[in-house]
Amino acid sequence: MDSVRIEELVKILGNERSTVKYLFEKKISRDAVHCPFCNYTKFYLMGRKRIRCRRCRKDHDFLKPTWFGRLRISYAKWLLLIKLFEVGTSARTASSQAGIGYPAALKSYDIMRISILHQLARQKRILRGQIEADEAYFGGRRKGNRGRGARNKTIVFGILERGGRVYVSVVPNVSADTLSDQTVRKVRRGSIVYTDRWHGYDSLMFCGYKHLSVDHKYKFKSGKVYINGIEGFWSFAKERLIKHHGISPHKFLLYIKEMEWRYNNRKNNLFDLLIDYMLGAVKL
Ligand SMILES: [Zn+2]
Description:
The chain folds into 2 domains: about 5-120 and about 270-280, no CATH class; about 130-245, Ribonuclease H-like superfamily/Ribonuclease H (Nucleotidyltransferase, domain 5), CATH 3.30.420. It has 9 helices and 8 strands. It has helices at about 5-10, 15-30, 75-85, 90-100, 100-120, 175-185, 230-240, 250-265, 270-280; strands at about 45, 50-55, 60, 130-140, 155-160, 165-170, 190-195, 210-215. Strand 2 and strand 3 (about 60) form a beta hairpin. Helix 3 packs antiparallel against helix 4 (about 90-100), helix 3 packs across helix 9 and helix 4 crosses helix 5. Zinc ion (ZN) binds near residues 35, 37, 40, 53 and 56. Zinc ion binds near residues 37, 38 and 40.
């Protein structure tokens, strides 16, 4: 699906009222908006983030309780930043393109990532059918052995449903307990799970799955036993994360879940999805 083109965005951002109008229409198509003073539901659109109640005539900022309210910048800047985030611009470049300070740009990006995380947490979908499972190591300079040598690296466990979605989680280690626990949470029993030969996956057959492992020593694909799907996701994520040189470990989850979201929505309109998430009420 096509996203909002820059040309259309320029029209929306043409003046304060048109920006408020755009966001107000998106908001009321999603949630009911009530006047905080008298509970009425009809408004005049004003500029400067404001709408005016048609009954009590008091103004309020209808996006204050949403993710937009988490950073004090104009809605025009917000829309610009959402567009820049959608197309993969770094926060550094976004700060100069949107004409705001780097800390504010960085914060706006984190707010978008948190809104994505909240959205993903609501999806309880279980993966099924033919599943590929694998782990990947992010960050840190040294290449180490699997498991033991993974110090200073963040370990990500990924599960991909063939022809469907990917799901990632940050894990403390790659033990059999950890890997089977993560699989059981997210994959329907009775599914076929393809992995490589790491012994941490051996217990999957005792957890109600048909487990088949790929031997990487043999480069040819033997029938359906391969994990190219999840490996494709790792390349997708690494290629995009590399430009964020040195993501602090406590923020890593936000970045890797963003990658999951981008991958699963690669055929969708990310701008519209982000606007929709950002319009959600913030419950901290
Ligand atoms: Zn009112």
